[in-house]
Amino acid sequence: FYVDHLNNSYEAIDSTQGKIAVIESVRVTATVDPTIELTIAGIGTGQTACGNALDVTTTATTVPFGSVSITNFVDAAQNLTVSTNADGGYSVTAMESDQLRMLLGDGLGANDIDDTPGDNTAASHNVSDEWSSTSTKGFGYSLENVDAASVPFQYNTSSGNCTGTFCARQFADDNNNESAEEIFSSTTVADSQNVYVCYRIIVGPTQEAGTYTNAITYIASATF
């Protein structure tokens, strides 16, 4: 380019040459993928969850009750944590493969440890019932909300059939064609929201000796 110095007659009396280097703008982009993460962590013996000192040390993949009692509850727990960037939030559901079924050789026998009926015989996979009497036998669970946005009930719920000591439910039973039941959720993004799932078992004096097992599946789904 040229810069000209003109007189009042528009005649050039001086001229200077220069150069311009054209620099293009730099576009910066980044992609955030939709994500959801569910983690399960064990909780050790002696720690407290759902108002009880725990009798069993769990891992991320096992709840090893060991030898269970006919006179006292055996309590265990796991810590479930969800993180997601889904604008619509998330839902965590739970389902058991069957009631605790007796192992025979390489397969399962006909005997089982029934899911708890609750002290008022009202417990199901979607109805809560108080379960603080050791006369009520079976297997069930409760929840303690640490910082999740929403839970359907907690161990200290004191409404309906529950008095606030240990409010419990059965797990939805896949073998009985029951639908997986939501145990905690959110309607927006979540950063490490967690809930304690508390397992409880007690058996009757006529429960046949043996090892019993089932599998509980937790599924976290998000709405993007």
Topology of this protein?
Layout: E1 2-6, E2 12-17, E3 36-42, E4 48-49, E5 52-53, E6 74-84, E7 90-96, E8 100-104, E9 107-113, E10 129-130, E11 138-145, E12 167-168, E13 181-186, E14 190-202, E15 212-213, E16 216-222
Antiparallel strand pairs: 1-2, 3-6, 4-5, 6-14, 7-13, 7-16, 8-9, 8-15, 10-12, 11-14
Question: What report would you give on this structure?
Answer:
By secondary structure, the chain is an all-beta fold. The chain has no helices and 16 strands. It has strands at residues 2-6, 12-17, 36-42, 48-49, 52-53, 74-84, 90-96, 100-104, 107-113, 129-130, 138-145, 167-168, 181-186, 190-202, 212-213, 216-222. The strands form 6 sheets. The protein has a 4-stranded antiparallel beta sheet with strand order 3-6-14-11, with no helix packed on it. Strand 4 (48-49) and strand 5 form a beta hairpin. It is rod-shaped, with a radius of gyration of 31 Å. The protein starts with a strand and ends with a strand. The model has no long low-confidence stretch (mean pLDDT 95).
- Main-sheet strand order equals 3-6-14-11
Number of helices: 0
User: Major sheet: size, sense and barrel closure?
Assistant: 4 strands, antiparallel
Beta-strand proportion: 35-45%
Task: Provide the residue-averaged pLDDT.
Answer: 95
Q: Count of DSSP E strands?
A: 16
N-C termini distance: 54 Å
Helix content: under 10%
Shape: rod-shaped
Question: What would you call the quaternary organization?
Answer: single chain
Q: How do the SSEs run, as a string of H and E?
A: EEEEEEEEEEEEEEEE
